Amino acid sequence: MITADNLVKTFTKNEKKNKKSEFNAVDGISLTVKEGEIVGILGPNGAGKTTLLRMMSKLMKPTSGMVGIRIGDEELTDEIEVKRHIGYLSNNTKLYGRLSTRELMQMLGTVYGISEEDTQKRIEEISEVLAMESFIDNRIEKLSTGQTQRASIARCLVHDPQVYIFDEPTLGLDIISSAAIIDFMKGERKKGKTVLYSTHYMEEAEYLCDRIVMIHQGRIISEGTPAELKVQTGQDSLRDVFAELIRGEGISDEQ
After folding, report:
1. Phi, psi dihedral angles at 200 (to 5 degrees)
2. What is the mean pLDDT of the chain?
3. Domains in the chain, start-ordered, CATH in brackets?
4. Is the model's pTM score more than 0.85?
């Protein structure tokens, strides 16, 4: 289980005439993602999704608030140990282009202290699940966009994490690559893994996620199952749900 307790992240921005001002990219968000649950984070560009996920993965320190990680009955407090249990996918991850996906995973297996035998088993499992057999030994710099994204996801899986935090994993991908990633996430949920999943694609979120957290301007404006959100707003699609919630809150992009 992973929890956020009143997370705030404040940044400073430059304005005209050398003036500076502060703004909260994340403004008091609290949420819990349970074992065996996929929770989707939805919102427009600039809503604070990536900042929230970076804090929850312990890659960014909050201005205030706390993130908690619990594996079974154990509350993890050591940051190194926390990161061993998280698979984090950024939407702008850079990979070593001259390595193959197999070589990248072998290297990461060593970093995580996994035996060579277990690393090879994981590589074969991941290759099959993400349908990478045809390109796993090709240089990453030669891969297509969809293949590179699957290679990026593969690097998050070598250590078999209990918590997945994925930021826009299917952005710009073809249907086949997207389907492979979505099917993988559904399989991990069946294994009891915890998944926090950010996406722009409302239809994808509705199909995949157990609960949806909608955020705008750094704040949660509603959360619930897709069905609950539709009933709440009287809408038939998550896209219309989000538009209705913004209207109902009196929120505009200019505020």
Report:
1. -90, -15
2. 88
3. 1-85+192-255 (3.40.50.300)
4. yes
